[in-house]
Write a structure and sequence with these properties.
homotetramer; alpha+beta; globular; L-fuculose-1-phosphate Aldolase
């Protein structure tokens, strides 16, 4: 069996999603890339979390084709694959998709998630962008692949660094997040949902308060990330 | 004892309702039809979930009359019966009623639940309609039966297919949902509540954002349903 | 030891409050009246729920004076006592006070809880009234006793029947509820919180939708209450 | 090992934070001062709660320097230290910082938390103030220390007594709370989050209702605090 250890890791990452309250039923999926082989392991499509096992995970290549496994891979496989194609060389080796409740509401509202405070700035350096919707043609031609393309080109066009902002809102759909492995991508999915709740309530309390000052965002992001980081144990 | 196996299934479906956070106390009921006998099994009225057993389930005919069981059937039995009468030949053999918190708020607000995103479109092909309120006469004459009639005729008048939109909001009351069995009806009740939360928050964040584009709804609904579905394991 | 059995019942009723998510820390209390002796059993003041025992419950008379027990009774004892004085002959023998989150928000907003739907009408026949605030003089003279007096006279002035509407919102403070025993008063406290959530969301979705039609409220209230009730097992 | 008993207490206080739903991941920290030695014990930086042990707690002096422990202390250590420097002689020996969801939203909105009712007044005598944001210079010079200075000088300038209002909202960041020990500081953090939720909902229901009357706030605060307190067991 290919990538036995990675199957375990990806299984564990997927199982965290319902535990963290980010998905119900089958509404999410996590994957991780093995950079040596260029293959990634992903959740099978439509399988309930309490029926998952490491063996049921599916191995795919970067064209989203199943390489090993009896089950169909997640319907979002082509989106994961494109993100790895574009950004694996930046160190992105884990991707997560959920329909977590409040982040999805921001995606449905078609709005960027503003950086209202330090909770956000500790993980996302600037707003989490909401992508343009796919066109009818993009959807009909290759929906899941084009979702990946809209994400990657959207970050390029808006000059957003996917390392500094490891999440996105797909218009009328929901969030994707990523990280150095599946576990970190899950972590970012949970942070995103929490920031989405706080930002919703912030606007209820003060609709026009504006984002946190840039120098505060700088301080928080840079005390956790980069060469001069001081947070945690180093 | 009639329909022993079905009693177990309906018992299990009912017990899922509090576990999924859809009901407290006795505020919900699930039933399932046995197409061979034309009888259905339903929760007894006003019995707490932790006192339920498969044996306490009540067997009724399609006039809502108790055929077997010591306990009175759910007060909503006539509504279930009418839905089976109208739609069993479409394959609808499970019905659920809850007072889940946010779906009920939409029903109290008297509003259709808009299809703001793909979470909704994966299960409901278009808005979940809110029915007109019953008249004083309809309520006094045969409240629960007429609730069923308003649902069925409301779907007809608005040309909504109950297979494509397996849930409804009853004005000032709360949601009903259905499916191919009681278990699927419970599933749709949970999806509805989740979509109701997301839609509430979507409107808080962008009051006039409008529904998801029709071609996106088409894509999501049709990738999970119908002859060309690709989602899950087939 | 006086009223041993009643201590057990009141202990159990108090322990339900944190389990139902209605109180944290020491923020609530339940009591029940023994009509034979004219005494009631109530939670001691400021004792955490996980340190409660039936023996720690306090027995008081209808002047709110401690008759048995080493601990001080709840600071709200005089409010409970006055409710029993006024309404015990109507069959009210259980009282509960909580600071449950959303019902308290309605009390802080100084607003009656409207009867937006059947969930409400199944238990409360009309709006749950919010009382006028106490005057400075009433607060300084006998705060807790006068809270009881404002409740009882408020129901009289507004011609609300405490049997038909077994709960109240005390302005800038929070809810009290009651019933035929402590257990039913707890039940009404939980229903009130759930209706308070639904009503908040109803107004977010449709600020001017107005209450449910009176004939629908009549139907629901009267199918659960009174001589012609059909709900449940009778 | 220094302050063995205090390490246990501070460990327990930290472990309460996720249990009370106030923090996820590593998003909070509790400390307590030992007045004899002038040292305080605090959570290590960036360590997950389920990996904490009493031995991993870090001992610091009032300049925020680590005196004992292998791990770096919380990145907020200098803020805790300054609060002890300023207010330990007032009896403040426990400090807590969280990013609890709704209190953080108030901080992001840049608004004082109004005293809308008695739940608030039982613990906070007046609004919980939101501090001015730190300047760019203050952030770049000594961010965490200056956060402490802005809190202490903010209370002085606004003439707020930190004993009567044992919590603060740091602009665009989140809440700090304090008390006579770490456990009481945790308690105040939980009360603050609950009051923040109630106040958000109060404004949704009645945007201009204004705070509770001063004489009601006086009654509630003074029945729990000071020489004439009657609440609880004394």
């Amino acid at each position: 069996m290919l990538l036995k250890e990675l199957r375990e890791k990806v299984y564990e990452a997927n199982m965290q999603l319902p535990r963290l309250g980010l998905v119900i039923f089958t509404w999410g999926n996590a994957s991780e890339l093995d950079p040596e082989t260029g293959l990634f392991v992903i959740k099978p499509s439509g399988v309930a979390y309490d029926e998952l096992t490491p063996e049921k995970m599916v191995v795919c290549d970067l064209d989203g084709r199943r390489v090993e496994g009896d089950l169909n891979p997640s319907s979002d496989t082509d989106t994961h694959a494109w993100i790895y194609r574009a950004w694996a060389d930046r160190g992105i080796k884990g991707v997560v998709h959920t329909h977590s409740s409040v982040a999805t509401a921001w995606a449905q509202a078609g709005r960027d998630l503003p950086a209202y405070g330090t909770t956000h700035a500790d993980y996302f350096y600037g707003p989490v962008p909401c992508m343009r919707g796919l066109t009818k043609e993009e959807i009909e031609e290759a929906y899941e692949l084009n979702t990946g393309k809209v994400i990657v080109s959207g970050f390029e066009e808006r000059d957003v660094d996917p390392i500094a902002v490891p999440a996105v809102l797909v218009r009328n759909h929901g969030p994707f997040s990523w990280g150095k492995d599946a576990n970190e991508a899950v972590y970012h999915a949970a942070v995103l949902e929490e920031c989405a709740k706080m930002a919703r309530d912030t606007e209820l309390l003060s609709p026009h308060c504006g984002p946190a000052p840039q120098y505060l965002q700088d301080k928080h992001y840079l005390r956790k990330h980069g060469p001069n980081a001081t947070y945690g144990q180093r």
